[in-house]
Specification:
By secondary structure, this protein is an alpha+beta fold. The protein is about 30% helix and about 30% strand. It contains 5 helices and 8 strands, in the order E-E-H-H-H-E-E-E-H-E-H-E-E. It has helices spanning about 25-30, 35, 50-65, 110-125, 140-150; strands at about 5-10, 10-15, 65-70, 80-90, 95-100, 130-135, 150-155, 160-165. Strands 1-2-3-4-5-6-8-7 form an 8-stranded mixed β-sheet, sandwiched between helices. A hairpin with a 2-residue loop joins strand 7 and strand 8.
Length: about 170
Protein backbone atom coordinates (compact mmCIF):
# COMPACT_ATOMS: atom_id res chain seq x y z
CA UNK A 1 0.00 0.00 0.00
CA UNK A 2 3.06 2.18 -0.45
CA UNK A 3 1.94 5.71 -1.26
CA UNK A 4 4.18 8.48 -2.54
CA UNK A 5 4.49 11.23 0.06
CA UNK A 6 6.89 14.11 0.48
CA UNK A 7 7.14 17.17 2.73
CA UNK A 8 9.75 19.38 4.34
CA UNK A 9 10.09 21.14 7.66
CA UNK A 10 12.55 23.81 8.73
CA UNK A 11 15.36 21.29 9.18
CA UNK A 12 14.18 18.02 7.65
CA UNK A 13 12.84 16.52 4.47
CA UNK A 14 10.67 13.42 4.44
CA UNK A 15 9.82 11.34 1.41
CA UNK A 16 8.62 7.85 0.66
CA UNK A 17 11.48 5.41 1.11
CA UNK A 18 13.17 4.40 -2.16
CA UNK A 19 14.53 0.94 -1.40
CA UNK A 20 16.78 1.06 -4.47
CA UNK A 21 19.00 3.78 -2.93
CA UNK A 22 22.39 2.24 -2.28
CA UNK A 23 23.08 1.70 1.40
CA UNK A 24 19.47 1.77 2.58
CA UNK A 25 19.67 -1.61 4.28
CA UNK A 26 22.96 -0.76 5.99
CA UNK A 27 21.50 2.55 7.13
CA UNK A 28 18.54 0.80 8.76
CA UNK A 29 20.73 -1.86 10.39
CA UNK A 30 23.03 0.83 11.83
CA UNK A 31 20.14 3.03 13.01
CA UNK A 32 18.03 0.40 14.75
CA UNK A 33 20.37 -0.14 17.68
CA UNK A 34 19.19 -1.74 20.89
CA UNK A 35 18.80 1.71 22.46
CA UNK A 36 16.74 3.03 19.52
CA UNK A 37 14.50 -0.01 19.14
CA UNK A 38 13.93 -0.92 22.79
CA UNK A 39 10.46 0.69 22.91
CA UNK A 40 9.49 -0.28 19.36
CA UNK A 41 7.40 -3.32 18.41
CA UNK A 42 9.25 -6.67 18.39
CA UNK A 43 9.39 -6.64 14.57
CA UNK A 44 11.72 -3.61 14.77
CA UNK A 45 14.11 -5.16 17.26
CA UNK A 46 15.74 -7.79 15.09
CA UNK A 47 16.91 -5.78 12.07
CA UNK A 48 20.47 -7.11 11.97
CA UNK A 49 20.66 -8.47 8.40
CA UNK A 50 19.61 -7.22 4.94
CA UNK A 51 17.13 -10.11 4.75
CA UNK A 52 15.52 -9.10 8.06
CA UNK A 53 15.31 -5.48 6.85
CA UNK A 54 13.70 -6.60 3.56
CA UNK A 55 11.12 -8.72 5.39
CA UNK A 56 10.34 -5.86 7.78
CA UNK A 57 9.98 -3.31 4.96
CA UNK A 58 7.77 -5.69 2.96
CA UNK A 59 5.46 -6.06 5.97
CA UNK A 60 5.38 -2.31 6.63
CA UNK A 61 4.63 -1.47 2.99
CA UNK A 62 1.78 -4.01 2.79
CA UNK A 63 -0.36 -1.78 5.00
CA UNK A 64 1.29 1.63 4.95
CA UNK A 65 4.09 3.90 3.86
CA UNK A 66 7.61 4.35 5.20
CA UNK A 67 9.15 7.80 4.78
CA UNK A 68 12.89 8.43 5.09
CA UNK A 69 14.06 11.53 6.98
CA UNK A 70 17.05 13.56 5.82
CA UNK A 71 18.70 16.49 7.61
CA UNK A 72 18.26 19.50 5.30
CA UNK A 73 21.06 21.40 7.03
CA UNK A 74 23.67 19.12 5.47
CA UNK A 75 22.60 19.22 1.83
CA UNK A 76 26.20 19.67 0.62
CA UNK A 77 27.19 16.33 2.07
CA UNK A 78 25.90 12.91 1.10
CA UNK A 79 22.37 12.85 2.46
CA UNK A 80 22.16 9.99 4.90
CA UNK A 81 18.91 9.17 6.59
CA UNK A 82 18.45 10.23 10.19
CA UNK A 83 15.15 8.50 10.80
CA UNK A 84 11.89 7.14 9.45
CA UNK A 85 8.19 7.95 9.69
CA UNK A 86 5.48 5.31 9.42
CA UNK A 87 2.01 6.13 8.09
CA UNK A 88 -0.85 3.63 8.09
CA UNK A 89 -4.29 4.69 6.81
CA UNK A 90 -7.21 3.70 9.03
CA UNK A 91 -10.97 4.04 8.40
CA UNK A 92 -12.73 7.41 8.65
CA UNK A 93 -9.81 9.61 7.52
CA UNK A 94 -7.67 8.47 10.43
CA UNK A 95 -3.94 7.73 10.22
CA UNK A 96 -1.87 5.60 12.57
CA UNK A 97 1.57 7.23 12.71
CA UNK A 98 4.96 6.58 14.23
CA UNK A 99 8.58 7.54 13.91
CA UNK A 100 12.11 6.51 14.76
CA UNK A 101 15.18 8.77 14.93
CA UNK A 102 18.85 7.87 14.89
CA UNK A 103 20.11 8.18 18.46
CA UNK A 104 22.61 10.90 17.44
CA UNK A 105 19.63 13.18 16.66
CA UNK A 106 17.72 12.77 19.93
CA UNK A 107 17.06 15.79 22.13
CA UNK A 108 17.14 18.39 19.35
CA UNK A 109 13.38 18.79 18.84
CA UNK A 110 13.45 16.93 15.52
CA UNK A 111 10.80 14.38 16.47
CA UNK A 112 8.36 17.14 17.39
CA UNK A 113 9.24 19.07 14.23
CA UNK A 114 8.76 16.16 11.86
CA UNK A 115 5.59 14.89 13.52
CA UNK A 116 4.13 18.41 13.37
CA UNK A 117 5.06 18.47 9.67
CA UNK A 118 3.49 15.05 9.09
CA UNK A 119 0.22 16.05 10.78
CA UNK A 120 0.09 19.24 8.70
CA UNK A 121 0.88 17.35 5.48
CA UNK A 122 -1.74 14.64 6.05
CA UNK A 123 -4.33 17.18 7.20
CA UNK A 124 -3.81 19.32 4.09
CA UNK A 125 -3.13 16.67 1.44
CA UNK A 126 -5.28 13.78 2.65
CA UNK A 127 -7.94 15.57 4.70
CA UNK A 128 -6.99 13.59 7.78
CA UNK A 129 -9.52 13.97 10.59
CA UNK A 130 -7.56 12.19 13.32
CA UNK A 131 -4.28 10.51 14.17
CA UNK A 132 -3.36 7.61 16.45
CA UNK A 133 0.11 6.89 17.82
CA UNK A 134 1.06 3.98 20.07
CA UNK A 135 3.85 4.33 22.60
CA UNK A 136 5.15 2.31 25.51
CA UNK A 137 4.50 4.29 28.71
CA UNK A 138 8.21 4.10 29.66
CA UNK A 139 9.18 5.94 26.46
CA UNK A 140 8.85 9.35 28.09
CA UNK A 141 10.54 11.17 25.20
CA UNK A 142 7.90 10.01 22.72
CA UNK A 143 5.07 10.61 25.17
CA UNK A 144 6.34 14.20 25.55
CA UNK A 145 6.43 14.66 21.75
CA UNK A 146 2.83 13.49 21.39
CA UNK A 147 1.51 15.60 24.26
CA UNK A 148 3.37 18.67 22.95
CA UNK A 149 1.56 18.19 19.62
CA UNK A 150 -1.86 17.99 21.28
CA UNK A 151 -2.33 14.20 21.34
CA UNK A 152 -4.32 12.87 24.33
CA UNK A 153 -4.23 9.41 25.88
CA UNK A 154 -7.13 7.51 24.33
CA UNK A 155 -6.71 3.94 25.62
CA UNK A 156 -4.14 1.32 26.67
CA UNK A 157 -3.83 -2.20 25.33
CA UNK A 158 -1.19 -4.91 25.83
CA UNK A 159 1.30 -2.57 27.49
CA UNK A 160 0.98 0.16 24.86
CA UNK A 161 -0.67 3.54 25.39
CA UNK A 162 -2.52 4.89 22.36
CA UNK A 163 -2.70 8.64 21.92
CA UNK A 164 -5.15 10.39 19.63
CA UNK A 165 -5.20 13.77 17.95
CA UNK A 166 -8.33 15.22 16.36
CA UNK A 167 -7.75 17.84 13.68
Amino acid sequence: MKEMMSFTTERLSAETLDRTISGTHSEIIAMFTEQVSRYLPPSCQQLHTPEAVNNWLNTMEETGTVLRLVDQQHVDQQQHGIGFIFVFPEPDNCYRVGYVLDEAYWGKGLATEVMRGLVAYLSNQKQAASFIAGVEPQNQGSVNVLVKLGFHLDYSEQGVDYYKLLT
